[in-house]
Sequence to fold (113 residues):
Amino acid sequence: MHEFTIIENILMTIEDVARKENLTKISKVNLVIGKMRQIVPDVFTYAFSIAGKGTLAQEAVLQIDFVTIEMICSACNKQFQIEEHNYFCPDCGGTKLQLINGKELYIESIVGE
Fold:
């Protein structure tokens, strides 16, 4: 389950930010995650609640905004979103694709006091 590893890194970053900003409690964490990361929302939220115990974020609400997978075909330059993990161009059937969006993984904001 790679979710726990990601959560541990996020929590370390949150703790660093909280220390630098003199925060004593984190109430909300907003994340942006690309769908190519294959994060299962329920598992991720559960991992956050477990790993966050004893941290400044132990009572924080986790908000996740998912970014769709977007590609461009090298053969015909068609830009499109990937649906159902079908990695081919809907126009020409090409499979040589370049990723535009979908691998994001970052903390958009942290709300605390």
Remarks:
- Strands lie at 26-34, 61-67, 70-73, 79-81, 97-101, 105-112.
- Residues 25 and 33 are 24 Å apart (CA to CA).
